[in-house]
Amino acid sequence: MPSTEVAGIKVWQRRTAGRQYAIWFGWLVGTALFLYCWKFVSDATTWFFVWDAPRIAGDIGGRMVPPRWAYMEKLWIPLWDTLNIATLGTALAIFMAVPVAFLAARNTTPSATLIRPIALLIIVSSRSINSLIWALLLVSIIGPGVLAGTIAIGLRSIGFMAKLLYEAIEEIDAKQVEAISATGASRWQVMAYGIVPQIMPAFAGITVFRWDINIRESTVLGLVGAGGIGLQLQASLNVLAWPQVTVILIVILATVVFSEWVSAKVRHAII
Amino acid sequence: MVQPLDGAAGPDGMLHLEGLVKQYKTGDKALKGVDLEVPRGQVLALIGPSGAGKSTLIRCINRLVEPSSGRMMLGGEDIVRLGAGGLRRARRRMGMIFQEYALVERLTVMENVLSGQLGYVGFWRSYFRRFPPAAVEEAFRLLQRVGLEQFYDKRADELSGGQRQRVGIARALIQDPDLLLVDEPTASLDPKTSRQIMRLICELCAERQLAAIINIHDVALAQMFVQRIVGLRLGEVVYDGTPDGLTPEVLTEIYGEEDWAATRDREADEARAAQVLTEEERLAAM
């Protein structure tokens, strides 16, 4: 008990002595583990390269300026592809994530013992595989190009969107649903009138948030041949065309800033 | 104990509960065999301490809560045995009004009122908000009746508590019900608004020959407006009679030991206050 009596006076402490020692012991173990890992990493590192890194970085940095702005004319189409991959991929994900979310939410699933675990499995498997790996798989299945990238983004986004959406469905106000049921509404009408209006803000927020993430992810999909501006980045890196790499990085930065601005605006408008 | 009123509570009563039992999965018995007869057009108040089973009883009648056993006859049909389609049709005849209004907050007042028509309209028509013109006309008429005609395009979450409850009443009435199930309609409202809402509900019931079961905590308010009071304690009916019959002894039986004389005095005060209030409203309306 944190409160003890010392010489007739009640003394209060935040924790009992045993608990305090346990916390100190936890810190001790944590610190020891950190030092051990540090040693391990240090032994496996070629320190010569690390000491040499600033010189190399300076060298590459020197070659990267000035950017070769003339290269821009070859970037417009890949940039457009990138935006399309992100947008269509997000749209694809919505179509698949919405039903999965309703099947996964405890209060809307038709069967908590049979269907809910399947929906959760879909969510977990989609989330656990990075979109680059999805793209690698899809490039070998359906060939390189924008389609592979779009589907990769779509598959990766299902889990993210379905998870956030089903959590929103589980948090709705049950009384509003009860009131709609009490009018004699059918199951689908209860969904359309009692549930959908309540999750609309969450749905819109999740969609723009994921679109914003997908813009960033689709800029690198070209590295594995799945279309978009990453293809140009890969090509330029291969021939050590550093001034072109600079232009591409600036374009990616500008795109990401733009998408964040859009998604912030949209989310602000909804809330 | 049961006193028939005006000879109306006969076997041809509209709602007839017989041996209604609700046992929750935890083993708690919320209702222990309730018998109740509600004739057409009668407004009755259901009083009792928290946990007496008032809310459960009301929710069993439209099967938002599934009763464990017993019979519930609504116009010659046993609600307990109905399948999904039959239950939907039966629910259309029972309008429900809730303690915290239970409006769909992000929909407009008009959409909330029209949602009372969902039992009559197919999915796609309701999805695209293409309700029958007669229903829309009725919705406008009801909004006017409850004094909210200029608010039809506001979102429900922009309204005050009293206004929201009026929308809730309109939503229940557009179902064209025979029976209103009213769950603590005034518990979230201030005393003046509470009276106005109770008066509105009772007036509407009289206008339309509607029966109503009103769960209510405020005994004085119940006595002021209804013709019959049913006291529930631990899932059993312990009083069924007129408002005047609520003596301190009866209140003790329903709620337990307390100095009820003070409440009786307060009631008298409140009744006088209500009289004054009505006068004020009448003046304000002129």
Secondary structure elements and pairings:
The complex is a heterodimer of chains A (271) and B (286).
Chain A: E1 3-6, E2 9-12, H1 17-43, H2 47-64, H3 76-104, H4 115-128, H5 131-142, H6 146-170, H7 174-182, H8 187-218, H9 230-238, H10 242-270
Antiparallel strand pairs in A: 1-2
Chain B: E1 15-23, E2 29-38, E3 43-47, H1 54-61, E4 69-74, E5 77-78, H2 84-92, E6 94-97, H3 109-114, H4 123-127, H5 133-145, H6 161-173, E7 179-183, H7 191-208, E8 211-215, H8 219-225, E9 228-233, E10 236-241, H9 248-255, H10 260-285
Parallel strand pairs in B: 3-8, 3-9, 6-7, 7-8
Antiparallel strand pairs in B: 1-2, 1-4, 4-5, 9-10
The total domain count of chain A is 2
The CATH architecture classification of the largest domain in chain A is: Orthogonal Bundle
Largest sheet of chain B: 6 strands, mixed
Broad structural category of chain B = alpha/beta
Q: Could you explain the architecture of this structure?
A:
The complex is a heterodimer of chains A (271) and B (286). With 271 residues, chain A is mostly helical. Chain A has 2 domains: 1-45; 73-270, Orthogonal Bundle (MetI-like fold), CATH 1.10.3720.10. Helix content of chain A is 75%, strand content 3%. Chain A contains 10 helices and 2 strands; from the N terminus they run ββαααααααααα. In chain A, a hairpin with a 2-residue loop joins strand 1 (3-6) and strand 2. Chain A starts with a strand and ends with a helix. Chain B is an alpha/beta fold. Chain B has a 6-stranded mixed beta sheet with strand order 6-7-8-3-9-10, with helices on both faces. A 4-stranded antiparallel beta sheet of chain B has the order 2-1-4-5.
